[in-house]
Design goal:
Helix content is 1%, strand content 55%. The chain contains one helix and 31 strands.
Length: 391
């Protein structure tokens, strides 16, 4: 722990409220009273750049780093920490942090509340070092109603759109001066697991708004956007979904073990061996030799990006690789990705599977066994919403 200092911010009906302690200045810059939450936004800057931990290493607070009166945490996810970078030419540096903390709704805005940050955490600058905790007293006592904290409004949407085996539900939109949120759900009509749950919003003039973050709350997704224009017509669209197909696959293909075994570390050995998976064209594109492992790359090669299938890795027990000599290679990781031209247009691209060790020089055939694979559902899923005019 580092040495402490104490400075009490005065009770005041205006923002920002500023507190400096232990060489760091923390300012309460915004108080938002929403129907479903209360959000306090802070700015954190280094008041004494010549000493103490590096500002760039600031880490998110733990619940024990704050002392609260009249406020309760909204969920296990406390909020969001966002870096503010310097302007101008040259390498950008972090000059401040914006910390947003999320609490339960305040039911009595005329009652005084307080939040005191008692410690700031800093990540280590190198693996050999330990993180630091800077103790201090950054106190903020205020009456929400006296601050004129902006209120939010809740718009019930309750619409759904089904296509391609997926149902997209938009439950509600929350409108606030500083941001907007869209609460939505996704259901697979077959009951299969799925991945890739991002949405976007398009305005009538074609402007596309992407979410700043997406949180999962008990099966409902909450996407946070910049503020929506009052009275705007929104098209809320779901991006393509990756749906699990729980059917085992066994793929056997020839290799030249000697050429692979003789390749230097970092070398990609091209194979281009064609395969057919559930009626779609694939190829074992390459083997890349890495330190202590090798990576198989398998591509979907259906022309004009019309392919919808990707190989899938359900878990460490769901992938095995053997050769014709009886050797088994331990699975160490995998990735699956899409090609993408815009937020709502993507296509099945390929999967990479990593295995420890090296392929035996005498091997002439490999067999890859998977517990399942994935199919991309493309919808489209779009829901039209008319926002109310400004009040």
């Amino acid at each position: 722990l580092l040495s402490t200092g104490r400075s009490q911010a005065p009770t005041t009906p205006s923002l920002p409220i500023v507190a400096t302690s232990a060489g760091m200045t923390v300012s309460l810059t915004n108080v938002e009273l929403a129907a479903d939450r209360t959000v306090l936004t802070f700015s954190i800057v280094d008041a004494d750049t010549g000493s103490g931990p590096a500002l760039a290493q600031l880490d998110a607070p733990a619940p024990t780093d704050l002392r609260l009166d009249g406020l309760r945490w909204h969920s296990a996810s406390l909020g969001n920490l966002r870096p503010i970078f310097s302007n101008g030419a040259g390498a950008q540096q972090i000059t401040a942090w914006e910390l947003s903390l999320v609490f339960d709704p305040i039911t009595e805005p005329a009652r005084e509340v307080s939040a005191t940050i008692t410690a700031l955490r800093f990540r280590p600058e190198s693996p050999e070092e330990r993180g630091q905790i800077l103790e201090g007293d950054w106190s903020f006592r205020f009456t929400p109603a006296a601050l004129g904290a902006p209120a939010s409004s809740q718009l019930t949407v309750d619409q759904q759109h089904s296509a391609d085996g997926i149902t997209f539900f938009v439950d509600a939109i929350m409108l606030a001066p500083t941001h907007a949120t869209v609460t939505y759900r996704i259901a697979s009509q077959s009951g299969s697991n799925f991945e890739s749950t991002e949405i976007m919003v398009q305005l009538a003039d074609g402007t596309q708004l992407m979410p700043k973050q997406i949180d999962n709350h008990d099966g409902a997704f909450v996407a946070t956007f910049p503020p929506f224009p009052a009275g705007a017509t929104l098209t809320i669209a779901l991006a393509p979904i990756l749906v699990e197909v729980s059917q085992p696959l066994t793929l056997t293909f020839p290799i030249d073990g000697r050429s692979i075994a003789s390749a230097a570390e970092g070398t990609q050995v091209d194979l281009h061996t064609p395969l057919v998976v559930a009626g779609e064209q694939f190829e074992v594109a390459s083997v890349t030799i890495q330190e202590k492992q090798f990576v198989l790359r398998i591509q979907n090669t259906v022309p004009d990006h019309r392919g919808s299938l990707l190989l899938r890795y359900p878990g460490e027990n769901g992938v095995t690789l053997t050769d014709n000599l009886g050797n088994q290679y331990a699975f160490s990781g995998a990735s699956t990705n899409f090609g993408k031209s815009d937020p709502l247009t993507s296509w099945a691209d390929g999967s990479s599977f990593a295995f420890t060790g090296a392929i035996a020089a005498e091997a002439s055939q490999l067999t890859l066994t998977l517990d399942g694979y994935a199919q991309q559902a493309r919808g489209p899923w779009q829901i039209l919403v008319q926002l109310p005019p400004a009040r």
